[in-house]
């Protein structure tokens, strides 16, 4: 299993063709639009450059920007910071256990992993309107994760539980669970 930062992402003119917006489902266009709008809002608030906010390596970001044109995404010349070890572990989990099979799925794995580092619910930090939108996106691109999450656990919690189960930890919290106002909604009474 390779970390997602080592996965060869397609870029225009390199091997696999960059997907076009027209090739995306209506749902994927809406979800990517929401994710990009949210990240552009954070960029406007000086929270960082788009490659960092999305967690995408430069070739993947350029591929996403090429696909989303005519939006003319900014920051094409910005080299993203190296992702945190947690972020790389989550992206690897998503691609491996999720059975990622398309360039878009690999891009989404990095985006999901990066946004899982933020303090709110994952669907909120992606800019999606509801948690079911996130579950539907994961279902379209990562069918293995849907099968594994048979208990309908919150996605951020699920990702970290999967990583910790590989390391034989009995309880593993997502990075921001202790400070979350809605912790009781995610954890059963025996885990509180």
Provide a quick synopsis of the model.
This protein is mainly α.
Structural summary, described in words:
- By secondary structure, the chain is mainly alpha-helical.
- Helices cover 52% and strands 0% of the residues.
- It starts with 25 loop residues before the first helix and ends in a 6-residue tail after the last helix.
Q: Report the order of strands and helices.
A: HHHHHHHHHH
Count all strands and give the number.
0
* Residues in β-strands, percent: under 5%
Biggest beta-sheet profile: none
Structure classification: mainly alpha
Multimerization state: single chain
In one word, what is the shape?
Answer: globular
Tell me the span between the first and last alpha carbons.
33 Å
Radius of gyration (Å): 16 Å
Mean pLDDT over the residues: 80
Return residue spans where pLDDT drops below 50 for at least 5 consecutive residues.
1-15
* Residues in helices, as a percent range: 40-55%
Number of helices: 10
Name its key features.
mainly alpha; 10 helices; disordered N terminus; 52% helix; 192 residues
Please outline the helices and strands.
Elements: H1 26-44, H2 50-54, H3 58-68, H4 85-97, H5 103-115, H6 122-126, H7 131-141, H8 143-148, H9 155-166, H10 183-186
């Amino acid at each position: 299993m390779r970390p997602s930062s080592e996965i060869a992402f397609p870029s225009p003119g390199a091997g696999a063709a960059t997907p076009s917006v027209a090739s995306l489902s209506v749902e994927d266009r809406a979800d990517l639009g929401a994710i990009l709008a949210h990240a552009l809002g954070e960029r406007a608030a000086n929270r960082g450059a788009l490659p960092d906010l999305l967690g995408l390596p430069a070739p993947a970001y350029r591929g996403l920007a090429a696909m989303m044109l005519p939006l003319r995404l900014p920051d094409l010349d910005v080299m993203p910071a190296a992702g945190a070890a947690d972020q790389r572990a989550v992206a690897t989990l998503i691609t491996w256990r999720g059975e990622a099979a398309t360039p878009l799925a690999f891009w989404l794995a990095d985006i999901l992993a990066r946004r899982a580092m933020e303090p709110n619910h994952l669907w909120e930090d992606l800019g999606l309107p509801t948690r079911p939108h996130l579950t539907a996106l994961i279902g379209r691109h990562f069918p293995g994760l849907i099968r594994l999450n048979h208990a309908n656990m919150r996605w951020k919690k699920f990702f970290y539980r999967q990583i910790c189960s590989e390391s034989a930890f009995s309880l593993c919290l997502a990075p921001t669970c202790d400070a979350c106002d809605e912790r009781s909604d995610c954890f059963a009474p025996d885990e509180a």
